[in-house]
Design brief:
By secondary structure, the chain is mainly α. Helix content is 76%, strand content 0%. It contains twelve helices and no strands. Helix 4 runs antiparallel to helix 5. The longest helix is centred in the middle third of the chain and has 29 residues. The chain is elongated, with a radius of gyration of 29 Å. The relative contact order is 0.05.
C-alpha cells in the first residue's frame, strides 16, 4: 500500500523538478545555453518547451550562425505540437527569410502540409483547403524533382476531393430545399441553383469521384423544375429534363439510377408527346 502511495508522490517530485529546471532556463540570459536546451527539448519531444524558448531565441539570434536553424526548428516544433496555423506562418517566415536556405525545400513542403492538417471537414468553409492546394502547387513548381513530390501530389488529390465534396453538399442542399424560396433573394429557384452548382463542379473537376452523383442531382432537379414551371416554360423544361435522362442513361448504363431516369422519361413523354 505504501508503495502505491509513493509512486504518484515520486512522479510529482520529478515533474516539479523538471518544471523548476525549465523555469530557470527560461529566465536565463545565457542564450547559448537556452539554445542547447531548446534543441534537447525538441529532440525529446517536449515541443511546448522548445517553442517557448525558440520564440525568444529567433529574435536574439538574428544574424548569427544559429538563426536559420532556430527558425526552422520553431516551425517544426509548432507543427509537431499540432499548432498547424502557427507552423504554416513560421514556415512561410523561414522561406521568406532564407529562400535558398538548407531547409528551404522542406519548409516549402511543410507550408502546404500544415495548411492541409488544418483544413476543415467538407461542409465548412474551404478557404484553408484552397490555400493548401496553392501551397503544394507552388512547392511542386519550385521543386519539380522534390523528394516529397509523390506525397505532395497525393495531398493535392485529397484536397481537390474535399472541394468536390463541398460542391456536392451545396448542390444536394439546394435540391433538398426544393420549392422553399426564403433563400432565393435574387430570383431563380433552388433547383436551378442545384443544376448550376452540379454542372460547374463537373466542368471544374471532370475526373472527380462524385461525377455520377452530380449527374443524378442535375437529372432530378431538371425534372422537378419542369414540374414546378409556369405553363409557358413547361414544355421546354420537360424536353430538357427528358434529354438529360437519356444522356444519363447513355453515360451511366449500369447505374442503379437508370430506372429513375426511365421513370422520368415516361413522365416527360406525357407532356412532350402531346
Amino acid at each position: 500500500m505504501k508503495k502505491n502511495i509513493l509512486i504518484p508522490i515520486f512522479a510529482v517530485v520529478i515533474f516539479s523538478g523538471c518544471a523548476h529546471e525549465f523555469n530557470q532556463v527560461y529566465k536565463s540570459q545565457d542564450y547559448a545555453y537556452k539554445y542547447e536546451y531548446a534543441k534537447e527539448a525538441f529532440a525529446n519531444g517536449k515541443y511546448s518547451q522548445a517553442i517557448s524558448l525558440l520564440q525568444e531565441l529567433v529574435t536574439f539570434q538574428k544574424g548569427t550562425d544559429n538563426a536559420e536553424e532556430s527558425l526552422y526548428m520553431l516551425a517544426m516544433a509548432q507543427y509537431r505540437d499540432m499548432d498547424y496555423e502557427g507552423a504554416a506562418m513560421t514556415f512561410k517566415k523561414y522561406r521568406q527569410s532564407y529562400p535558398k536556405g538548407i531547409y528551404a525545400e522542406m519548409a516549402s513542403f511543410y507550408i502546404g502540409e500544415s495548411l492541409y492538417m488544418s483544413t476543415p471537414e467538407p461542409r465548412l468553409d474551404q478557404t484553408q483547403t484552397v490555400n493548401a492546394i496553392s501551397a503544394f502547387q507552388e512547392y511542386l513548381d519550385i521543386y519539380p524533382d522534390a523528394r516529397l513530390k509523390d506525397t505532395a501530389q497525393k495531398r493535392l488529390f485529397e484536397l481537390q476531393d474535399k472541394l468536390v465534396k463541398k460542391e456536392y453538399y451545396s448542390a444536394q442542399l439546394y435540391y433538398n430545399l426544393g420549392t422553399y424560396f426564403g433563400n432565393c433573394t435574387s430570383g431563380g429557384s433552388n433547383y436551378e441553383a442545384c443544376i448550376i452548382t452540379a454542372q460547374n463542379a463537373i466542368n471544374d473537376y471532370p475526373y472527380n469521384s462524385l461525377r455520377e452523383e452530380f449527374a443524378v442531382l442535375i437529372m432530378m432537379s431538371k425534372f422537378e423544375l419542369a414540374q414546378q414551371s409556369v405553363e409557358e416554360k413547361k414544355l421546354d423544361r420537360y424536353r430538357d429534363a427528358e434529354d438529360e435522362c437519356y444522356g444519363f442513361i447513355n453515360e451511366y448504363p449500369d447505374s442503379e439510377n437508370v430506372k429513375l431516369a426511365e421513370k422520368y422519361i415516361a413522365s416527360c413523354k406525357k407532356i412532350t408527346k402531346e
